[in-house]
Amino acid sequence: MKSYKKEIWMNATKRRQYINITPIVEESLNESGIKEGLCLVNAMHITASVFINDDEPGLHNDFEVWLEKLAPEKPYSQYKHNGFEDNADAHLKRSVMGREVVVAVTEGKLDFGPWEQIFYGEFDGKRKKRVMIKIIGE
Amino acid sequence: MKSYKKEIWMNATKRRQYINITPIVEESLNESGIKEGLCLVNAMHITASVFINDDEPGLHNDFEVWLEKLAPEKPYSQYKHNGFEDNADAHLKRSVMGREVVVAVTEGKLDFGPWEQIFYGEFDGKRKKRVMIKIIGE
Amino acid sequence: MKSYKKEIWMNATKRRQYINITPIVEESLNESGIKEGLCLVNAMHITASVFINDDEPGLHNDFEVWLEKLAPEKPYSQYKHNGFEDNADAHLKRSVMGREVVVAVTEGKLDFGPWEQIFYGEFDGKRKKRVMIKIIGE
Questions:
Q1: What is the spatial distance between Cα A20 and Cα A131, in angstroms, rounded to a whole number?
Q2: How far off is chain B from C40, nearest CA to CA, in Å?
Q3: What are A92-132's pLDDT values in tens digits?
Q4: Are C10 and C132 in contact (CB under 8 A)?
Q5: Mean pLDDT over residues A66-82, rounded?
Q6: Interface residues of chain A, partner chain C, Cβ below 8 Å
Q7: Contact assessment for residue B25 and residue B110, using Cβ atoms and an 8 Å cutoff
Q8: Measured between beta carbons, which residues in chain C are less than 8 angstroms from residue A46?
Q9: pLDDT bucket at C121, cuts 50 / 70 / 90
Q10: Shortest Cα distance, chain A CAs vs residue B109, angstroms
Q11: What is the pLDDT of residue C8?
Q12: Interface mutation target, options C59, C92, C135, chain A, most CBs of A under 10 Å
């Protein structure tokens, strides 16, 4: 069995932002030399998400509006977590969108359906955070 | 290490539908010959879900009502994604329910609790879509 | 390839409760002797969750308030699932928070970011339930 690990640094310029990291994950898979296995991609921070969906700006706008409806950023005082912080909403938004994805690796490729793309979802940005890529297989 | 892959075609007759795919996953696990490992099951399309819950029609009705409350299908015009499409709500519903499950394989069986069943959740149906089953182990 | 499995019993004293199980998972990883691989941790019951977030009591209070807003426990009669049961809301809350996490194992450790902790989220407690830990690797 082979295993491969890479950490990648994200630096979102906005509080909330969606960044397509599919090319970075593909490059990592190539580096790993693994042909058959599983690829885990996860946010290493608890106010961010890794998820799979469509690379379509209208949809990303819909995510923004929808997540603000489900777990609004403001007023900050509505959340007990916000004693010394202001990011409780980011913990909740990340819970909806998920921490991680696991992707099948087949014949050296991410084994995806037609529109699947991997996104880093930042909900408390303007700072550096890491994403983990861990691949096991052979 | 062994690896096994199967794609299965789903063809939901309704826009939204929950289909128990546990027997198909069990059959695939038997075919694979893998006794110890991990089994990934994921929707290959971004308006569908694979999740684990109870096979109880009342609960599935509750999912329908609840997801329509969290991310209503209509009016279509409330979503920016719906320029040429009408399925933005399906992308959001799938985000709540999740893309994938990872199940332990022990002694050649899906290592489940008493009521765990794997469902394909369709949120934009009346068309053919695929589910991925990828098993690694030995 | 090595594989390791452990079931751990949870016994939440409240209907809804968050229990940090990171030390138990770390102990299991040590027992397994696995240095590189993937660690799956999942609820074996469909009204409970395993998720990764911050070990901060204010945030856990925010989860309680927020999940009660998204999927209220009462009135029980609002859910079709509640014919002979009263836990439909627990099935929905668990859908938001997720069934499972998959964690990278690197150099014999759970390969975590700075604040990541694994929680068992109970949504229909006062009874014994199990969590699965399955680790594969070498």
A1: 12
A2: 7
A3: 999 999 999 999 999 999 999 999 999 999 999 999 999 99
A4: no
A5: 98
A6: 1, 3, 5, 38, 40, 42-46, 70-71, 79-83, 88, 91-92, 94-96, 98-100, 102, 129-130, 132, 134, 136
A7: yes
A8: 52-54, 113, 115-116
A9: very high
A10: 19
A11: 97
A12: C59
> What would the pLDDT profile of A27-63 be if each residue is shown by its tens digit?
999 999 999 999 999 999 999 999 999 999 999 999 9
Give the integer Cα–Cα distance in Å for C131 and C102. 13
How many Å lie between the alpha carbon of A55 and the closest alpha carbon of chain C? 23
pLDDT in tens, B43-82: 999 999 999 999 999 999 999 999 999 999 999 999 999 9
User: Which residues of chain B neighbour A115 with C-beta distances below 8 Å?
Assistant: 45-46
Contact indicator for C46, B118 with CB cutoff of 8 Å: no
pLDDT tens per residue, range C37-47:
999 999 999 99
Verify cis geometry, omega within 30 degrees of 0, for the bond prior to C75.
yes
Tokens representing residue B119 in the block: 């469902």
Check residue B93 and give its pLDDT: 98
Smallest Cβ distance to C81: which of B1, B36, B58?
B58
Contact: B132, A111; criterion CB under 8 Å: yes
In chain B, which residue's Cα lies nearest the Cα of C78?
Answer: B62
Checking ipTM against 0.90, whether it exceeds it is yes
User: If you write DSSP's letter for every residue of chain C in order, what string do you get?
Assistant: -EEEEEEEEEE-SSSSEEEE-HHHHHHHHHHHT--SEEEEEEESSTTEEEEEE---HHHHHHHHHHHHHHS----GGG-TTTTS-S-HHHHHHHHHH-SEEEEEEETTEE---TT-EEEEEESS-SSEEEEEEEEEE-
The residues facing A116 across adjacent strands are none
At residue C81, the pLDDT reads 97
In chain B, pLDDT over 90 holds for what percent of residues? 99
Q: Which residue, C55, C70, C73, C75, is CA-closest to C121?
A: C55
List residues in chain A touching B: CB distance below 8 A: 1, 36-38, 51-54, 56-59, 61-63, 66, 70, 96-98, 101-104, 106, 111-116, 136-138
Per-residue pLDDT averaged across C114-121, rounded? 97
Gap from C37 CA to chain B (nearest CA, Å): 11
By C-alpha distance, which of C103, C136, C134, C135 is closest to C118? C103
Q: Is the pTM of this model over 0.95?
A: yes
